[in-house]
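RETRY 2/3 - previous attempt timed out on the joint model. Re-submitting the same 1124-residue input unchanged.
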Amino acid sequence: MKQNDPIQAARTGKATFVIRNANVVNVFTKEILHTDVALYEDTIIGVGAGYTAPKEMDAHGAYLCPGFIDAHVHIESSMVTPDSFARVIMPHGTTTIIADPHEIANVAGVAGIRAIYKLSDDLQLRVLFMMPSCVPATPFEHSGATLLAEDMEQFMRKSRILGLGEVMDSVSTINGNKDMLDKLRLFDKRPIDGHAPLLSGLDLNAYRVAGPSTDHECSNYDEVLEKLRTGMKVLIRIGSAANGIDEILKKIVEDHLPTDNIMFCTDDKHIENIQREGHINCIARLAVQCGIDPVEAVRMASYNAARAYGLNMIGAIAPGYKAEMVLFKDLKDFEVVGVFNRFGKPFDDTPAHMPVLPPQVFNSVHIAPLDEHSFDLPVKAEMPVIGLIPGQLVTEKRIKRVRSENGLFLPGDGLNKLAVIERHHALGYIGLGIVEGMNITNGAIASTVAHDSHNLVVVGDNDRDMRIAAESLVDCGGGFCVVSQGIVLSRLPLPIAGIITDAPVAQVLEIQRALLDAAASLGAGGQSDPLVTLSFLALPVIPAIRLTDEGLFDAENFRFFE
Amino acid sequence: MKQNDPIQAARTGKATFVIRNANVVNVFTKEILHTDVALYEDTIIGVGAGYTAPKEMDAHGAYLCPGFIDAHVHIESSMVTPDSFARVIMPHGTTTIIADPHEIANVAGVAGIRAIYKLSDDLQLRVLFMMPSCVPATPFEHSGATLLAEDMEQFMRKSRILGLGEVMDSVSTINGNKDMLDKLRLFDKRPIDGHAPLLSGLDLNAYRVAGPSTDHECSNYDEVLEKLRTGMKVLIRIGSAANGIDEILKKIVEDHLPTDNIMFCTDDKHIENIQREGHINCIARLAVQCGIDPVEAVRMASYNAARAYGLNMIGAIAPGYKAEMVLFKDLKDFEVVGVFNRFGKPFDDTPAHMPVLPPQVFNSVHIAPLDEHSFDLPVKAEMPVIGLIPGQLVTEKRIKRVRSENGLFLPGDGLNKLAVIERHHALGYIGLGIVEGMNITNGAIASTVAHDSHNLVVVGDNDRDMRIAAESLVDCGGGFCVVSQGIVLSRLPLPIAGIITDAPVAQVLEIQRALLDAAASLGAGGQSDPLVTLSFLALPVIPAIRLTDEGLFDAENFRFFE
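RETRY 2/3 succeeded.
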């Protein structure tokens, strides 16, 4: 398309496609105008009467909105490729995501970022990125890579890299850690995502001065208000859990708080949940239920995010904007009638061509050889134990009497053994610990999805099954598996960096169900998904007690146990 | 200042300066919070309690706002240097201007832009620029320079060049003129100012598709509404004239139109008027009088403009923002109590150091030699005449019987002779015409300020005085002068490009009064300022009849008279 083509189409009224009879939401004036919208290929050239086109459609009064934007999401958490993920979310009206490839960067560094960039290059979904700021997430574990400011410079001119991803390490930031300040300086003219749960007062102000300009971790209204006052953009997050968001939304209405700097994100949301309840449209629905004006909700779901991230070509239905749009039956349930993709065409569920990725991305699981003593865990009579709380990701430290043989821990009495095996560079690190509440008997469950360093985590009641489970994941390039009595009951290979598969979504969901059934057959499950629980047990930033490949970690005092 | 210094100051509460007891306008939440504001040098590090500093001030409850922003202004129209202009406007609370150096670019091209950039390099005022898009303004006259996209590339990395300046030539734009599209493409990721009075419907949409994203020419509410709907930012302009703006503001209130994309500008405002009524604060005052909420008015005067032009470090009082602020006695009259400049220090009227400019900027007036026949104007019995309308810039075409001698025009009966002399490259072009309503007897008035090409324009009732006036301006490098009976009665030299002087403001105003007195002694004046009238007589884009160095121009049909 030549630069002049859409201009002449706009001037003469000769469009390539016209949507007639739509209720068009104007995010600038907050009006709903019953009119036509004209496109020239992927570009909106006019809103109003006076356009003809060889193809047109009648919207029958449906509500035409700018395509919705997920302002912060980790694609890798879906375990499927960006294309598969796109085809899950687009039917719910999301046409742009701002993704932080933090997970794949922790495994494969710069090559991982390049891989996910390539995987999202030519999709119907607009996939934009923030450069992961905290790789590794903490100094208490071995990840696959380290990203410094100097590693990021090569990405500064990539058109789909918008800014710096969530700055989770607020302590380093406000203490002026040099590596962190170097990254913040590199991105100082661009959006910088924050991640600062409950940070307040002088510390919050120092964090803001350092650079982060958004936050998606607010858990109550006062936190929203304080952060907005500092000029932060607040991302209302409804991922797989949505604690307290409705209270926040109701209070926004009650206080007449301006919503210009409020937008929506999912962060992490399971594919099944997206399929069942929707994506960003599900947050818009809740917002309207809580009393937010429907047009305001549409703005929060589109325009506000576009503006916050400096995107001047999307987020509105107006001449010159890209024709990424969604038709809703109404602005209450936000049920989708139609979606226009990044090319201005109706969304189409055909898979995209899978690009060729560099081999190291497919060959990411490297552990030092295991033997029958690899999981030997010397214990005293009483030991600190990771206590699971049903339905929650936080754990609690419990001191338990444990069984032993020859001074080594013997699982049983509701206690399982947990191992975190360094799996990136075969360094030989294995952290060992005891977990209560996983309730596995006669088997083991293993995963290479283990936030944020994605080491190989395995839990079980006997060393043999644990070792078989770990080695089974090495064999398939990573993933999840359930082993019992020497047999692999179920396995989900995730060959891309050990965290993503290019298998179709339906197949992934089917294997996930098989994995859960297999885990249940060992006794694991109940209120919590044991796979999710397992994949968070190695994350040292969540209270209260975790295990990394370097040992048992006191996540409240930020140090290892003796 | 090191990157870490303000962060640590924010964290520890150890500021360099604290403003206590202010009513702080928060543009994000639209609140007014009675509290303290802490600075570290030029940066705001916190709003709230908990800060100490070696120096502090008590605001006594005055209203602390982000420094006001003039979103579109031509510094050259003030005829003084950026430093002098800064010291005129800053006492009225304006701390940032977005300037279009269109006038100096028409005279001196790239060198002119470099000169005004240098003249504004180190001021207390933040001076940002848009690259002039229409040099020359029209093909119907000779200007000093031509600016193509290729000439602009060298400026793309200059930190104070924000985008492309007002795209006045909407016809070329929507017709897809290649030179224009090249410029628009060069700036397609940046703000592009529009200038599209009364453009509407398909033409407006085509103009938007081409790129311009702001407009400061709206003269009625429907035009505002239509342009906002297209996603344009609307700049409410009150320069030296303010026709109909109060009606627009009242209707915005009545219609509950969102103001996020509305901001303020002056475009051109005489220094005397600024001194008398204020600058951007004068527009805020009118907005509040018209019913705009005072906090909304502050947002329009600061935050909205910052956001529209992608400025994320100014426009708000919050940690990390630059401490460019203004204290007002109230948010009704917007009387200024104090101003904090670009360095976070109280405004100080000391002149800045005058930088060295390249010699060609001081040596810009070059005309072919004049002789006693240069102004010979052959006429018929009846001639088209430029008819002045008192108090207006538009002219009307009048057909008049004229006196003549040997077939040449003889001034008299209320008719003067007008000449526009090409003055950039001594090409020898002289346009000649007849003007009614200037009312000069026994003399001539000349100017090298003649929008937009700034040729030498001279009007009088006899050729001798006209020639003396023109040559007097050549001698002093340009400016204004009034001549009677062979004697220069008064002269304002404007040695920088023939349109700006480095003389102090008070002296400029004094000479301007002397010029007006001298003009009045010839009979010129009355309802209109004859100097302003003269400087617009060569502008071919204003109806109905104009004179350029190439001849008498029919500004309604965009062609020369036969």
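The CA atoms of residues 66 and 317 of chain A lie 6 Å apart. Closing ticket.
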